[in-house]
Amino acid sequence: MKLIPLPAFQDNYLWLLHDGQRALVVDPGDAGPVQAHLAEHGLQLTAILVTHHHPDHVGGVDTLRDATGAAVFGPARERIPQPYAHLNEGDEVDVLGLRFHVFDVPGHTAGHIAYYCSSVEGAPLLFCGDTLFSGGCGRLFEGTPPQMLASLDKLAALPGNTRVCCTHEYTLGNLKFATAVEPGNTQLIHYRQQCEERRSRGEPTLPSTIALENSINPFLRTRQPAVAQAARAHDPAADPADPVAVFAALRQWKNEFR
Ligand code: ZN
Ligand code: FE
After folding, report:
1. Which of 7, 43, 184, 205 could cross-link 171 (Cys pair, CB 3.0–4.6 Å)?
2. Short-list 253, 258, 222, 220, CA closest to 239
3. Model confidence band, residue 123 (pLDDT cutoffs 50, 70, 90)
4. Active site residue: 168, 190, 234, 235, which one?
5. Active site includes 91?
6. Could you give the angle at the alpha carbon of 7 between the alpha carbons of 117 and 165, nearest 5°?
7. Which helix (H) or strand (E) holds 116?
8. Does pTM top 0.70 for this prediction?
9. What's the start-to-end Cα distance of the chain, in Å?
């Protein structure tokens, strides 16, 4: 199995997984890079997995479906290009001989879903759309802080070796913010250096892992005293004993952060 982040637009990744013959793609906002890769490597697209309805995630769905006959899967509670299989929490998708479990992860959008496979050649794999980013999380366009925190907690509880396939290369900006929140986190300092080196070589910083995110991502660390205190220092109304209040203060702080 090969896992490939195809760059698209400014900073999107269209994740492609293939076994040398058949492929699946996640959130193809643009058909072009996907079709080029399929042609170059002689791959047949069998499935398109969609996490949420934003144009940079669904823009290429119709073109790819028409060109390849691939089956399309997406969130039941959002409007994405028809026809597609409507998925909810607890549903399973069997593709490329793998079984993906569906989680509801509302917050960025109201019906956002994520896809998790417990073993792809020995290690779990997560396609989380715009819910979790390395060092950050999606903006709350349609959801509330309690919803998004519950969604992130669900992902944070997955096995530590789960590879996390985020759909944007936002890592360096996120880590700049994470460092402002937790300047004393040595793992964060080390990871930020690694990511700066990768980006300077033009390489993606992704996939990340759940263990790494749990140690460096402030939005998964709202129960850490240092993070809670930093949130309160920024917003005195945020009760450091209330993870939702800490999360909301961090998200607001990040929205204004330069
Ligand atoms: Zn989005
Ligand atoms: Fe996006």
Report:
1. 205
2. 222
3. very high
4. 168
5. no
6. 20
7. strand 113-120
8. yes
9. 39
User: One of 30, 57, 104, 112 is an active-site residue; which one?
Assistant: 57
252 neighbors 235 (Cβ within 8 angstroms) = yes
Q: What is the pLDDT of residues 207-217, one digit of tens each?
A: 999 999 999 99
Q: Tell me the per-residue pLDDT of 147-175, one tens digit each, with 9 for 90 and over.
A: 999 999 999 999 999 999 999 999 999 99
Q: Are 55 and 66 in contact (CB under 8 A)?
A: no
pLDDT band at 98 (very low <50, low <70, confident <90, very high): very high
2-256: which CATH architecture? 4-Layer Sandwich (3.60)
Which tokens go with 144?
């509330």
**Average pLDDT in the chain:** 98
Q: In the chain, what are the helix, strand and coil shares in percent, each to the nearest 5? A: 35, 25, 35
d(CA 41, CA 168): 24
Confidence at residue 183, expressed as pLDDT on a 0 to 100 scale: 98
Using only C-alpha atoms, the chain has a radius of gyration, in whole angstroms, of 18
Q: Which residues contact 124 (CB under 8 A, 6 or more apart)?
A: 116, 117, 118, 158, 159, 161, 162, 163
Note if 101 is an active site residue.
no
Is 234 a catalytic site residue? no
| 225 CB-near residues (< 8 Å, 6+ apart) | 240
Kindly state the average pLDDT of the residues 29-58.
98
Q: Is 18 a catalytic residue?
A: no
Please list, in sequence order, all residues whose beta carbon lies within 8 angstroms of the beta carbon of residue 194, skipping any fewer than 6 positions away: none
**Closest to 129 (Cα-Cα) out of 11, 18, 25, 50:** 50
Beta bridge partners of 44: 22
Q: Is 53 a catalytic residue?
A: no
Q: How far is the CA of 78 from the centre of ligand 2 (A)?
A: 15
